[in-house]
UniProtKB/TrEMBL annotation:
<dbReference type="GO" id="GO:0051537">
    <property type="term" value="F:2 iron, 2 sulfur cluster binding"/>
</dbReference>
<protein>
    <submittedName>
        <fullName>Carbazole 1,9a-dioxygenase terminal dioxygenase component</fullName>
    </submittedName>
</protein>
<dbReference type="InterPro" id="IPR021028">
    <property type="entry name" value="Homotrim_ring_OHase_catalytic"/>
</dbReference>
<keyword id="KW-0408">Iron</keyword>
<dbReference type="InterPro" id="IPR017941">
    <property type="entry name" value="Rieske_2Fe-2S"/>
</dbReference>
<dbReference type="GO" id="GO:0051213">
    <property type="term" value="F:dioxygenase activity"/>
</dbReference>
<feature type="domain" description="Rieske">
    <location>
        <begin position="34"/>
        <end position="141"/>
    </location>
</feature>
<dbReference type="Pfam" id="PF11723">
    <property type="entry name" value="Aromatic_hydrox"/>
</dbReference>
<keyword id="KW-0223">Dioxygenase</keyword>
<dbReference type="InterPro" id="IPR036922">
    <property type="entry name" value="Rieske_2Fe-2S_sf"/>
</dbReference>
<keyword id="KW-0411">Iron-sulfur</keyword>
<keyword id="KW-0001">2Fe-2S</keyword>
<keyword id="KW-0479">Metal-binding</keyword>
<dbReference type="GO" id="GO:0046872">
    <property type="term" value="F:metal ion binding"/>
</dbReference>
<dbReference type="InterPro" id="IPR050584">
    <property type="entry name" value="Cholesterol_7-desaturase"/>
</dbReference>
<dbReference type="Pfam" id="PF00355">
    <property type="entry name" value="Rieske"/>
</dbReference>
<keyword id="KW-0560">Oxidoreductase</keyword>
Length: 392
């Protein structure tokens, strides 16, 4: 049973949001899921690097090409290995304080350099280790118990992300807001109001209204099978009503100029996938798809992964896309267009800081897809990350 000391949200608030209680409680995210934590090229051979995931401090290292991950905390006195990493052998890391030495592969305590005859090295002790997979230039860590029923990575990423011919280029940055504000900002079909003056609209000849209202027909599809990723797909086209004119008390105050309603009608779908990944297809161009992750770092920050994928099989096609990414999309799509998303999430963090906004929020018809995702992840998550998990 969860105790009050093991909760980060007032129990009274949780009792008032029963439809998505787990989601509101999960300030630190969910356990037993796969998350990207770094870009592959950030983990160099023999050079330990830190990351933080769902409040847990991690240390990663590449050994003979394979990435390993352990908790960044010595059993003895609780200090971080990363304060002064010591790797006297390729396969181990030694704590700089007293010489406790652990294997990268499984976290087992193998020796104490300062006391070689100690009885504490008995084959049963070790630091927590994590299963790692690399895919599409990202390092994924499974935050959970190694001896449990570990799902395949494909169950925790958006459909088609792992396709062999999906060539992906990525970047990441830290955002000063809880991970859920990233999820809901990305999946919010009326938040495009904040993008109405984006340079990307003219740069890529986009059709972009002020927002999308409800048409009266269900515009989302729930994906909740026993195998594969689980999520909610928001379908555009006839299922929503685009707003090209904004009115206040009957008076037109904003209007999308006819000369900026271009030929590229994108996206056709936006979808959110457990535990925290967005897919915008196609975007920002008919031949590309944008994937995003909003990875919990702690209660008030998340790691924002931005990924653009395109179908490319040959080296020449990959070089062409990389050139286009560097010269065009990295600025217009990922920096200039997504910039307002970042400060919108940070503003939401202030509004939800004491958690009462989860009860007070005034959601409307266009938020139905967000509500459906809240209910899905509250029902289907594999465990809420709690303060006690950080102490275990």
């Amino acid at each position: 049973m969860t105790t009050q000391d093991d909760q980060l949200v007032d129990p009274d608030i949780l009792d008032r949001v029963k439809g998505w209680r787990d989601y509101v409680e999960a300030k630190l995210g969910f356990r037993n899921h796969w998350y990207p934590v770094l870009l592959s090229d950030e983990v160099e051979e023999g050079k330990p690097v830190t990351a933080k995931l769902c409040g847990e401090n991690l240390l990663l290292n590449r050994i003979d090409g394979e990435v390993h991950c352990i908790r960044d905390r010595c059993l003895h006195r609780g200090v971080k290995f990363s304060k002064k990493p010591e790797c006297h052998t390729k396969a181990t890391i030694t704590c700089w304080y007293h010489g406790y030495t652990y294997r990268w592969a499984d976290g087992k305590l193998t020796d104490v350099i300062a006391a070689p005859e100690t009885r504490i090295v008995d084959g049963t002790r070790g630091v927590r280790s994590y299963i790692v997979e690399e895919a599409k230039g990202l390092v994924f860590v499974f935050l959970g118990d190694r001896d449990g029923n570990i799902p395949p990575l494909i169950d925790d990423v958006p459909p088609n992300f792992l396709d062999e011919d999906n060539y992906v280029l990525s970047q990441r940055q830290t955002v000063q807001s809880n991970w859920r504000h990233g999820v809901e900002n990305g999946f919010d079909k009326t938040h495009i109001y904040i993008h109405r003056e984006s340079l990307l609209i003219q740069e890529n000849d986009l059709v972009l209204p002020l927002g999308f209202g409800a048409s009266g027909e269900q515009s989302h599809e729930l994906v909740d099978g026993e195998d594969g990723p689980r999520g909610v797909i928001e379908i555009y086209g006839p299922h929503v009503i685009p707003a090209f004119e904004g009115k206040i008390e009957g008076e037109t105050v904003l209007k999308v100029p006819s000369d900026v309603t271009g030929k590229n009608l994108v996206p056709s779908t936006i979808s959110m996938w457990m535990p925290c990944a967005l897919k915008v297809d196609p975007w920002p161009d008919p031949k590309t798809t944008q994937f995003e992750w909003y990875v919990p770092i702690d209660e008030t920050t998340h790691m924002y992964f931005q990924n653009l994928g395109t179908r490319a099989e040959t080296d020449e096609e990959k070089r062409d896309f990389k050139r286009e990414y560097n010269n065009r999309w990295a600025f217009y799509a990922l920096e200039e267009f997504n910039g307002p998303d970042i400060w919108a999430r940070e503003a939401a963090e202030e509004g939800y800081a004491d958690d009462h906004q989860w009860v007070d929020e005034a959601l409307f018809e266009a938020d139905e897809n967000i509500i459906v995702f809240r209910r899905l992840i509250s029902k289907r998550n594999r465990g809420v990350q709690r303060p006690s998990d950080l102490r275990a």
